[in-house]
Design brief:
293 residues, alpha+beta, Glutaredoxin, 2 domains, five-stranded mixed β-sheet, elongated
């Protein structure tokens, strides 16, 4: 059959430049011999296309729109399948980390946002000049508002931009005097992060506004540097290459994901271990509705 096709194509007289007619004969031949081709198996098709590659090239030239649409559809389907596989892998990794959470260092001497003895700790690896980190500040404040007795936040550092490391050192040094003042410094720096480029002058201005002991601050800055460096190494150890990165009770959250993602991990992974979770919240809600009724 293959030899017959070759004989026909080589001996039919085409007008000069009549490639479309030749292509159509190829295609008609393939259409009418599909049952035969199927029975011959892939080896036959492979040999035919190898001996006559112009079957495909001429067909593409004759029907470019059809092929471009097919390629676009294939690319869209590839992206859908890739995203689905990525989500499945992320879910599997999250479930594994829920069973075997990562264990960052959490010293009592560090600054914690929220209730200091809360059972669930969100560790954030951040940069004071990172736009996504600034966005995450609002998300984490909402988390604390939603779970005031269950969650606390430990702000750690992964400075990427020039000047961010110095901001981190001032934050830690102020925290050695007062957690409250360090938290206020944290918020002020994010609100005015464009001024970080002014360096020590800017940080000292904020410290004075917070009534920080300046002489003690100068001494503590030398102790803050190693803390920031250790935070950076820890972030890299846990696979965070950019900022922000989070460990929600030891479960990884890469990037400034929405509140719903944090809520899902807290309620699906951690609250059940504490004797609560979605079910408990739903029952409490029903009780409230009954009492209101």
């Amino acid at each position: 059959m293959l030899d017959f096709l070759g004989f026909c194509l080589e001996n039919i007289n085409f007008n000069k430049g009549d490639k479309v007619k030749k292509t159509n004969i190829y295609l008609l031949f393939i259409v009418f011999t599909v049952p035969f081709l199927a029975s011959c198996g892939p080896a036959f098709l492979k040999k035919m296309l190898k001996d006559h590659p112009d079957i495909i090239t001429e067909s593409i030239k004759a029907n470019p729109e059809m092929y471009m649409e097919a390629l676009a559809d294939a690319q869209r389907q590839y992206m859908v399948n890739r995203r689905k596989k990525q989500q499945e892998d992320e879910l599997a990794a999250r479930e594994e980390e829920c069973k075997n959470p990562k264990k960052p260092e959490m010293k009592d001497s560090r600054v914690y946002f929220g209730k200091k003895d809360a059972p669930i700790t969100i560790v954030e690896y951040s940069d004071f000049q990172c736009g996504y980190c600034a966005k995450a500040v609002k998300t984490l404040k909402r988390v604390l508002k939603e779970y005031p007795d269950k969650v606390r936040i430990l702000y750690k550092h992964k400075p990427l931009f020039p000047g961010s490391g110095k901001a981190a050192e001032y934050y830690e040094a102020i925290g050695m005097q007062s957690s409250k003042k360090a938290q206020e410094f944290h918020d002020m720096v994010f609100e005015r992060k464009s001024e970080i480029r002014n360096g020590d002058k800017f940080f000292k201005e904020l410290a004075k506004k917070l009534k920080v002991n300046m002489s003690k601050l100068e001494k503590d800055l030398s102790l803050a540097g190693p803390i920031v460096e250790e935070d950076k190494r820890e972030a890299e150890k846990f696979g965070f290459s950019g900022t922000p990165g989070f460990l929600v009770g030891g479960v990884s959250v890469p990037g400034a994901l929405p509140f719903s993602e944090f809520k899902k991990i807290i309620e699906d992974c951690h609250l059940p271990k504490l004797g609560g979770g979605k079910k408990e919240k739903e029952e409490d809600s029903k009780e409230e509705e009954k009492s209101e009724g």
